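Researcher: Checking consistency across runs. Here is Sulfhydryl oxidase again:
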Amino acid sequence: MAARASPATSLSRRRMCGIPAVRVRLLRAVLCVMCVLCGGVRAGLYTDSDQVAILTPDNVDAVLFQSPSAALLEFYASWCGHCIAFSPAWKQLALDIKEWKLAVKLAAIDCADELNRGVCVRFGIKGYPSLRFFPAFSSNDSTGEDISGFSRDVPSLRHLIIDKLESHKTPTPPACPPLEQTSAREIDSYVENSGGQNLALVFEGNDSYVGREVILDLLQYENIMVRRVLRSEEELVSRLGVTDFPSVYLYNTHTNFTRLPVLREARAFYSYALQRLPGVVREGKPRPEESDFIRNHTEEQWRPFNKTRVYMSDLESALHYSLRVELASHSIISGEDLTALRRYISVLDKYFPGRPPVKNALKAVNDWLQKQEGTSINYSDFRAALNTRSTDSYLPKVERWVGCQGSKQHFRGYPCAMWTLFHTLTVQALETKSRDPQEVLQAMRRYVSSFFGCRPCAVHFEDMALESMNRVISLRFAVLWLWSHHNQVNARLAGELSEDPHFPKVQWPPPDLCPACHSLKPSGEHTWVQEEVLSFLKNYYSAQHLLHDFLSDDITPPLTERHKAREAAPQEDQEAGEEVEEDEAVEEVDGAPQDEKSASEALPRKPSIVGLRLRQFREDIVDLDSFIVQHYKAKTPTKRQDTEDEVEPRSWNVRRTKRDLAAQEAEGLALEMEAGPEPYGQSRSTRWMSVLSVGFSRLDVSLCVMLYLLSTLCIVAMCLYFRVKRRQRRTKVALP
């Protein structure tokens, strides 16, 4: 074995000897640094998009000590199976109580990461997962309150947090509203001094957490106060005539109060309805005003739209922006980016439910792109192929948002339209029974990764895709996967500066848009009815349900000058229009337009009920195929800038030209026969020859005549031959 190994060893030594010693040392040093760095960036169980504060030695003190909010911290090890199983509940809890973060925040630290081991030892952590509660304004030497035997489900963890906040010692988190029950005297005093602020009363049983949960859900909203009233508070219960627990009432005075209408009597429905009351806004956000929709003369005017429908204008605008604006930043597209572009254009060609010219344009671009054999393309070539325009193929160069328009120019728009586009594509793939359930999702993933301008957004989407996109095994699942992860993004971005105050990010579809999509678990927790959600999505994004209002009229190419003149000139009657059409056809067949004035002087007019002009018959042979090639050349992609004039469209259909030329010839001859005297001195035999030779040259007619004569001679010869044979047969029979 040693003998066999020695040649390889000596060979490797000879190769290493060929490298200078300095370079070898440098290579080893680089490898060591890479190993250390790789160990230092160990991937934990949580990311920034999970609404969980990820602690490190650098930020642990700032989050836990002398903080105005309380914190619930999970110590975990990324290799621990129980920690991995617990992480989905922790993520779900973080999203569920996102609105509570001013009072309490969720955090996590990975003790398996070597960089964090000192922190875990400092807090005396010996098992995973472990939970510690840190009250607001905890001292620097605090190790937190250990929570043992905690449940692994979200409702129990949520109730645990509420219990810790209620038992919180002074000083309490300044942002935390009062969670205790209220009384009639307190309500009356508040109404006198509230100054018209909304007041919502949650009536519930003594052991219910709904009221406190709704109070914390409205923690970050202004111009509303939520208080809980127990069933035992008889004065308020009798004053308002409350019979259902839980239920919510909007209270103004002793005699002015109304019950909050909701689909289900549960926390999620109460919070959603209260957050959308008139005048209720997120803290720090400007109050929505109708004047926000009044634009100045430099802005596009607001377009009233139906919130329950999808607009084709948004979809076409998304295509225009992605293909002509975002892609334009990549002068050379190659490698994985080129693969991403091919997949993106392919799914658009297959599933985009657009107008025929737009679909034809996408198909033409897809055909062009698939024919490119190199490993890279120039965007200028792609743009030229995209901008090639004909009568039935064109993508408008318009950015016109309707359902995706924001109250300000920087709100919504393109990101909203891209989400709408990909939702529509997943539904169309389901309707057309695509074979690959991940086709649209993977195309979206690659496009976002390669081209989407918001790079943090692209990173977050890639994180979601890595987590679960490979589990999509059906077209139905693909539609629901995109829907559920869009809701995750909405939950993460709710309350951010990018949120439009007029269109807050909610879990979609909301109860008022799809009541059947929402239900309750036996525990009272909100749950989605996925079959109803799928049915709603299929209808909402179906091609038949799209609205075509506000579409660009730039879809029709500009007319030629001759067509513009024809469109503008008044036509006296239908016959006059037919005369113009026939004259133009004759001019183009002859090869060049004729001078109408000289023609009218040279050629005498004859009476005709249809007003057609006489024309002299020529002996030229008209090659229709050559005519079509010359006059209807195919429009091929050429390099040109967006500002250049587009290709002139066809005047009429080519096949109609082939069919109609012979008919026009025959019609003109028939009219000449009705005219009586022969113009131009033609003889009657010449005229009949012209009638017989409609559509044929004289050579063709001559060959036909010769064939007719030869056929006649053959028939006569055969008749003579059989007569002779018949006589010979009779002679033989008569012999003795």
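Researcher: Does this match what you'd expect to see?
Model: One thing to look at in this run: Residues 698-734 form the longest helix (37 residues).
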